[in-house]
Design goal:
Blueprint: E1 5-8, H1 27-38, E2 48-49, H2 56-59, H3 65-77, H4 93-112, E3 118-121, H5 142-154, E4 159-163, H6 170-175, E5 182-188, E6 210-215, H7 221-239, E7 243-247, H8 265-283, E8 287-290, H9 297-311, H10 334-347
Parallel strand pairs: 1-2, 1-3, 3-8, 4-5, 4-7, 5-6, 7-8
Helix pairs in contact: 1-9, 4-5, 7-8, 7-10, 8-9
The structure holds zinc ion (ZN) (2 copies).
Length: about 350
């Protein structure tokens, strides 16, 4: 069996929480699971999988032993912060984190074992966490750990990581900055974490493999998809990935309280459709989708449900009630055209691509 999409989830994800007043709501994943079951798109007996938690050894693929010990200790105490004030240390946060990282590793095993072509872990996508510290609500970087796991267990060399969260995927970028692992991040310019400029193209053997597309506040579906279409398909076609990992944070949604991009469900639906096609075209459909940001829980649930249904090729009629009305096209802002041009000029020559279309 090599088709279909599996939903990877377990209740222990809920231990990954930062208290009742924190914007990160871990129930988002549970709601999405329930919604997909209600629509008959996910069925516990056929396309659902409960993952094992990650082991300490898994965490050490990316993180330092010192940092892992620190998180363990803070998790037992359950007070204070894991970083400088965004990511509180709550009781059980270590176990909750390991559950979520385990979900992403399970996606890798299911896809590589050809049980399913595509796998979604809504609890993953914790892309800000770095080797030796937490950041931006992210404790352990499951995106980077999964890529390292694919290198070690399956000897994969060409792993593409697409990050369409509203924030820059800085922890992931940093992990692979000197290696030819293709990381592409679309994000809003000028907000947390303050990195992700087009000039950050990688170093040494990684030069040309770190791709950053910062977009202005209010960027709408058309402009976003223009940038996506100009950059992602040509780079993936040139790179020829063996697998694609997609951090599918949905805090670029127009109602999201933290980011300020202007996307509707239509952008996410289209992006899911296009990425799904590209993975079938380029890497036998091997496609791991991870969650990420999203701070308006009902909208997160809708966006992820639409994404999952689209990748699973569910007829649109079955979920169209969840979709936003398409907005009239307002033309592509010059600033978006400029940043796309800049990214192409900086990156495309490394991949034998013409930067002018
Ligand atoms: Zn497929
Ligand atoms: Zn985010």
């Amino acid at each position: 069996m090599t088709g279909g999409t599996v939903f990877v989830y377990k209740e222990e994800y809920l231990k990954y929480h930062f208290g009742p007043l924190h914007p990160f709501r871990p129930e988002r994943e549970k709601y999405t699971f329930e919604k997909l079951q209600k629509l008959g798109i996910v069925d516990k007996c056929s396309n659902f999988f409960e993952p094992d938690s990650a082991t300490e050894e898994d965490l050490l693929l990316v993180h330092s032993g010192r940092y892992v010990d620190f998180v363990k200790r803070m998790s037992e105490m359950g007070t204070g912060y894991l970083d400088y004030g965004d990511t509180p240390a709550t009781k059980g946060i270590y176990e909750g984190s390991c559950a979520r990282v385990g979900g992403s590793l399970t996606c890798a095993k299911l896809v590589m074992g050809r049980k399913f072509a595509h796998a979604f872990n809504p609890g993953g996508g914790l892309h800000h966490a770095a080797q030796d510290h937490a950041a931006g609500f992210c404790v352990f970087n499951d995106v980077a750990i999964t890529a390292r796991f694919l290198q070690r267990e399956y000897d994969l060399r060409r792993i593409a990581i697409i990050d369409t969260d509203g924030h820059h995927g800085d922890g992931t970028q940093e992990t692979f900055y000197r290696e030819p692992i293709l990381t592409i991040s679309f994000h809003r310019e000028g907000i947390y974490p303050g990195t992700g400029y087009p000039e950050e193209i990688g170093e040494e053997g990684g030069k040309g493999y770190s791709v950053n597309v910062p977009l202005p506040a209010g960027t709408t579906d058309d402009a976003y998809l223009f940038a996506f279409k100009e950059i992602v398909p040509p780079l993936l076609q040139a790179y020829k990935p063996e697998i694609v990992i997609h951090q599918f944070g949905v805090d670029g949604y127009f109602r999201d309280p933290l980011v300020g991009l202007g996307l509707t469900t239509n952008a996410y639906q289209h992006m899911a459709m296009r990425m799904h096609e590209l993975t079938h075209e380029l890497c036998m459909g091997r496609y791991i989708i991870l969650g990420g940001g999203g701070y308006s829980p009902p909208d997160v649930c809708r966006c992820w449900t639409i994404m999952f249904a689209t990748i699973d090729e569910v007829p649109v009629e079955r979920f169209k009630d969840l979709c936003d009305e398409p907005r009239p096209c307002e033309g592509i802002p010059q600033r978006v055209k400029d940043v796309v041009e800049e990214v192409k000029n900086l990156i495309f020559p490394f991949h034998g691509l013409e930067s002018r279309s």
